[in-house]
Design a protein that fits this description.
The chain is of the alpha/beta class. The protein folds into 3 domains: about 350 residues, no CATH class; about 30 residues, no CATH class; about 190 residues, IlvD/EDD C-terminal domain-like (Glucose Oxidase, domain 1, 3-Layer(bba) Sandwich), CATH 3.50.30.80. It is about 40% helix and about 15% strand. The chain has an 8-stranded mixed beta sheet. The chain has a 4-stranded parallel beta sheet with strand order 2-1-3-4, sandwiched between helices. A hairpin with a 2-residue loop joins strand 7 and strand 8. Helix 10 crosses helix 24. Catalyzes the dehydration of 6-phospho-D-gluconate to 2-dehydro-3-deoxy-6-phospho-D-gluconate.
């Protein structure tokens, strides 16, 4: 299938825009790749320290037999249900490496915070910047410089982007990401959302709300809605960085163990000793990035990736911006409906065909580059297939690590969840770029009903999310809707990277959804983020430049009439130009302890806030 002209044009533009930085990156990568292996290059004391803790046979393999040594970077902790299964992965990976005549070492661990735990708390102010901490920790792990490749264990929101950014700074090494899989389906996401809205109205108490939440989040594995964590997994498949089809296989299955072992064989196959040398820095090129963006848009994935994948691209010497996303969104059909842009969860998504179906449809429609490197010899087309255990493994005739087979995905198993690219849910992806005198912002439209794509009404300006929650609880927002003729645009400012680390504002969804459910026309405008699970209320997010650096949101006043038009791509304060231009931006007020988080680690991130780039530049702190 011929590549779609818009996909080709965006790819060419990224390539041209990035020519100098990408060439510099590849030259550095090439020079590092040409060095002798670490165990041969380093001094004897360095080598002795590196392998002192290994069993004697492993030392022999590395030093005398010159076998490949694979570094393991793990984000294991059991605070994250998604990462709890990783507890036993290192020993499994080491065992498989030995079976293959190689060795593996845990090079280091990276921090991994749970946004579900910190949502709406002071800890959320550390969330976005934890991505760059993870990237730094990945670099610390790999700086031992004695590895021929690496396996990266991470799944959730900031963890995969952080691992990938760190990995790309060691782009001369082959690397494979190793997922853990989702938890089984519990209370449906729609039912959970209903209980949250009832709680916001005071119609159910804490006991009922807690019961619902625990039924939804109930076991080991990734949360089952299509938020940032599961969007990460979709993108890893589209970029060819997983063992094909491994994203959404439950942790406690023989198939999961087989796929985990296969990750070892896969990374060994792309080392220099394996004969098909494929360092991650060459694999992740402009075509690979575009494939990721198209897959994100076609599945209605998390808005957080409008920040994270800009940073990922920069780590590979590539420059992308929101115009690239918007142009791809205009031609990428929405072919998946998974909560929050549908009622299905990721287990239903997997059963209907999962990433394999999505990638096949996009490749066949000319919307993804097929001529890309992946960690597998067969290329991206292999990612259109579904893994399964061969019959001999079920009968116990072969070890789990030798028992994998892949089958064709076939047609959609549920047309309410996955549709062909020729007959999509929508002809365009779930993202729009907004521009106007309030700056540049983005809106996720895939979960917003078309009749709510345009909202015009008076502004109610808040200096933090708790102020909005208090106003809702006091009945002020319902009163403002009534006085505003049925419409209200809530503005929450001072939420950008330099202000307070750009927290997610997911706790604002239930009260705004309540107002919307009562028939009012409401919208949110903010320089902060929304969770990957948000969407039913129209929200212009990531407004740049942010208020803290004098951005336009700092000029807004209560009562200003605002227009959010997702169809026309407009975000505008309907204030006369003369008056608007004459206004002095407000100064960011001191935040109270509820919003500020002093004493809970926030002070340690002052340098991150000071150095952060804009949201559209990936909110990077390391450039």
């Amino acid at each position: 299938m011929k590549l779609h002209p818009v996909v080709a044009a965006v790819t060419d533009r990224i390539r041209e825009r990035s020519r100098d930085s990408r060439d510099t990156y590849l030259q550095r990568l090439g020079a590092l790749a040409e060095r002798p292996r670490g165990a041969d290059r380093m001094g004897c004391a360095n080598v002795a320290h590196a392998f002192a803790g290994l069993p004697a046979n492993d030392k022999l393999r590395i030093v005398a037999e010159r076998a490949p040594n694979i570094g393991i970077v793990t984000a294991y902790n059991d605070m994250l249900s998604a990462h709890a299964p990783y507890a036993g992965f290192p020993e499994l990976l080491k065992d498989e490496a030995r079976r293959q005549g190689a060795t593996a070492q845990v090079a280091g661990g990276v921090p991994a915070m749970c946004d579900g735990v910190t949502q709406g708390t002071a800890g959320m102010e550390l969330s976005l910047f934890s991505r760059d901490v993870i990237a730094q920790a990945t670099a610390v792990a790999l700086c031992h410089d004695v590895f021929e490749g690496a396996l990266l264990l991470g799944i959730c929101d900031k963890i995969v982007p952080g691992l990938l950014i760190g990995a790309l700074h060691f782009g001369h090494l082959p690397m494979v990401f190793v997922p853990g899989g989702p938890m089984t389906s519990g209370l449906s996401n729609n039912e959970k959302a209903k209980v949250r809205e009832l709680a916001a109205q005071g119609k159910v108490g804490r006991a009922e709300l807690l019961e619902a939440e625990q039924k939804a989040y109930h076991g080991r594995g990734t949360c089952t809605f299509y938020g940032t964590a599961n969007s990460n997994q979709m993108l890893m498949e589209a970029m060819g960085l997983h063992v094909p089809g491994s994203a959404f296989i439950h942790p406690d299955t023989g198939l999961r163990e087989a796929l985990t072992r296969e990750a070892v064989r896969t990374v060994l196959g792309i080392t220099r000793a394996g004969g098909r040398f494929t360092p991650i820095g060459r694999l992740v090129d402009e075509r690979c990035i575009v494939n990721a963006l198209v897959a994100l848009l076609a599945t209605g994935g998390s808005t957080n990736h409008l920040i994270h994948w800009v940073a990922v691209a920069r780590a590979a010497g590539l420059r992308i911006d929101w115009n690239d996303y918007a142009e791809l969104s205009a031609v990428a059909p929405l072919i998946a409906r998974v909560y929050p842009n549908g009622s299905a969860d990721v287990n239903h998504f997997q059963e209907a065909g999962g990433p394999g179906f999505v990638i096949r449809e996009l490749l066949d429609a000319g919307l993804m580059h097929e001529d890309v490197l992946t960690v597998r010899e067969a290329g991206l087309r292999e990612y259109t297939r579904v893994p399964q255990q061969a019959a001999m493994a079920v009968q116990g005739a072969a070890p789990a690590g030798q028992a994998l087979a892949w089958r064709d995905t076939g047609p959609s198993g549920d047309l309410a969840v996955l549709r062909p690219a020729a007959d999509p849910f929508s002809p365009t992806g779930g993202l729009k770029l907004l521009q106007g005198n309030l700056g540049r912002a983005v809106i996720k439209t895939s979960a917003v009903p078309p009749e709510r794509h345009v909202i015009e009404g008076p502004a109610r300006v808040f200096d933090g999310q708790n102020a909005l929650l208090h106003a809702f609880g006091a009945g002020e927002l319902e009163r403002a809707c009534r006085e505003g003729g049925g419409s209200l645009v809530c503005v929450v400012r001072w939420q950008g990277p330099q202000a307070n680390g750009m927290p997610e504002l997911h706790k604002l969804t239930p009260p705004l959804a309540v107002l919307q459910g009562q028939g009012w026309r409401v919208a949110l405008v903010t320089d902060g983020r929304m969770s990957g699970a948000s969407g039913k209320v129209p929200a212009a997010i990531h407004v740049s430049p942010e208020a803290a650096v004098g951005g336009p949101l700092a000029r807004l006043r209560d009562g200003d009439r605002l227009r959010l038009d997702a169809d026309a791509g407009v975000l505008q304060a309907l204030v006369a130009d003369e008056e608007w231009n004459a206004r002095e931006p407000a100064a960011m007020p001191p935040q109270d302890i509820e919003d500020n988080g002093h004493g809970l680690g926030r002070e340690l991130f002052a340098g991150f806030r000071r150095n952060a780039l804009t949201a559209e530049e990936g909110a990077c702190t390391w450039l």
